[in-house]
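seq as requested:
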Amino acid sequence: MKNDPLEYLEYEDIRYARYRDKEGEISRGTMIIFDEKIRRMINDYPHILRVYRMKEGIKNFFGNDSFYAEEKLDGYNVRILKHNNRIVAVTRGGIICPFSTEWVHYWMGRYRIDDFFELYPDRILCAEFLGDNPYNSKRDPTLPPGMSFFCFDIMMPSGRLIPPDERYKILGELNIPQVKSFGKFRFKDLNRLRNIVLELNAGRREGIIFKHYLMNNTCTRRPEAYMITR
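struct tokens:
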């Protein structure tokens, strides 16, 4: 249909559709996997608001609540999920990417990605992919040739992101690469945070992400925000 917001696609024997644009409360990049038994919706990765002035931004987004600070990497956003015993990689736009999926299967020989999905079959790994790829020509000189990935969130079937400390524990035990965490902070720790941002800027790193310690609907303020350092 001409006005259908969905684009219908196939990847091998997986039939699915993605939202090309925002439709009501459903964001672009949300995808639906069709199956003989189920119709599974995979939520898009939520957009994160930007902090331009650190003091005002942190006060506005987090108040006096605790939050974590993590490095923001300059790659492309991928959701890794398991469906019918197959692990695939989905782009921000909601397309199953053969290139990214092939790399995930390569990394399964080095990291315990398959063990993660044995333990949490309905959860989704959200990761930044960096290196030699068709989506982002920038290369991080600190990384080896080829591709690398770093997880920055774990998504529940509802689309909720689990708290950072829970994610650190799960991925740490499974030896799955994660983005660098600088620790837990409050508004009173601005000077310490400012020094981290200045260090990232001096190293020409991409930025820093602030994440509420709860990362769920009980947060009194916005759960995530980011700041570009260069």
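The longest strand covers residues 147-155.
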